[in-house]
Amino acid sequence: MIVMGILNVTPDSFADGGRHNDFEAAVHRAHEMLAEGVDIIDIGGESTKPGAERVSEAEEFGRVIPVIKELAKSGVRISIDTMRASTAKAAIEAGAQIINDVSGGLADPGMLTTAAQLQAPYIAMHWRGHSKDMNSLAVYDDVVKDVISELQERISAALDAGITKDKLIIDPGLGFAKDAQHNWDIIDSIDQFVAMGYPVLIGASRKRFLGGDNPDEREAATIRLTKRLSTSGIWGVRVHSVKSHKDALKV
Ligand code: PMM
Prior knowledge:
The chain is of the alpha/beta class. It has a single domain (1-248), classed as TIM Barrel (Alpha-Beta Barrel), CATH 3.20.20. The protein has nine helices and eight strands. It has helices at 23-35, 57-72, 85-94, 111-118, 143-160, 180-188, 190-194, 219-229, 242-250; strands at residues 2-8, 40-44, 77-81, 98-101, 122-125, 168-171, 201-202, 236-239. Helix 1 packs across helix 2. The radius of gyration is 17 Å and the shape is globular. It starts with a strand and ends with a helix. 47% of the residues are buried. The chain binds pterin-6-yl-methyl-monophosphate.
C-alpha cells in the first residue's frame, strides 16, 4: 500500500495549520518526508477545509509551481492537488506526475480533457460542491450506494474524455459533503469501493470525524484507521505523518 504525504502550501489548511506556507518550509518538509520513505508527495495550494473560500489561479500557481520545480529535482513522485485544469497542466509540466482532483472533474469543465491530453494518472474524488457549501450537501438516501453511483458517473465522464482505465484512481472523499457517520459508513463498506475495480485512495488523516478539537490529537486514530484499511485492498492512504504510517504498515 502506498503512503502519499500531504504537503499543503496554504496559510489556512485544516490539518497542518499552514505551518508549511512558504517555499523554504515546504521544501524542507518534503525532504523530511523523502527521508521517511514517502511514495508520493501530494502538493496543494488551495485549502478545501469546510467553509474555505477559493484562491485565485495566480495565487495557487505561485504557491505550488516553485515547490514542484524544486522537488522534481529529487526524482520523487509528485501529485498536484488541484481542481483547476490550468494548474494541473502547469504542475505536470513543472515535474508532477499525477493529478489529484478533489472535485472529480466537476469544478473545472476543462479538467478531464486536460488530464487525458497529459496522459497523467488521475485521482477522481467524490465531491458535491465547493467547501463553502459542502456541509449543506451532506444529504444521502444511502451514503454508500449514492457515493458509489456518483463516483461511477465521474468514472464514465473521465473515460468519455479520453482518460484511460489504467490511469484512473478513485477516492470516496472522506469529510467532503459527509458527516461523521457518513464517513464511518463508507469505511465500513470499503470493500464495495475496492470492488469497483480501480485503485482506491483514502484521505482520513486528522479529519474531524476522528474526534477531538485539535487535528494533532487525531494522529493515533489516523494510524489505527490506516492499519484497519491496510487489509482491505485499498491502493493507498493520503496522510500527514509519513514515518508513523510507514512504521505501522511495516508492523
Ligand atoms: N482531502 C483533502 C485534500 N485533498 N485529496 C484526496 N484525493 N482525498 C482526500 O481525502 C483529500 C484530498 C483535505 O484534507 P487536508 O486539508 O488535510 O489536506
